[in-house]
Amino acid sequence: MDLSSQIKNSLIARIKNSNDIDFLKALQTIFETSEQGLYELSPEQEEAIAESRKQIENGEFEENDTVISEMREWLKGK
Questions:
Q1: Residue 2 pLDDT greater than 70, yes or no
Q2: Read out DSSP for 4-62?
């Protein structure tokens, strides 16, 4: 028996033997969430991500350390 089958059988047994409603509801939520997909992006979000990836490929970005340093300097002046 492979690991996947062992895990499935173990989970099935634990679910069948459980009377803990909170535990069972938590499992139900996990299953429902995984079936729906965790992240559903809008077309606008997908477009923004694609544009950002193009900018990164073209070198149109600042390193995180640079941005943080610039922000600290800016905040000092406030």
A1: yes
A2: HHHHHHHHHHHHHH---HHHHHHHHHHHHHHHH-S----HHHHHHHHHHHHHHHTT---
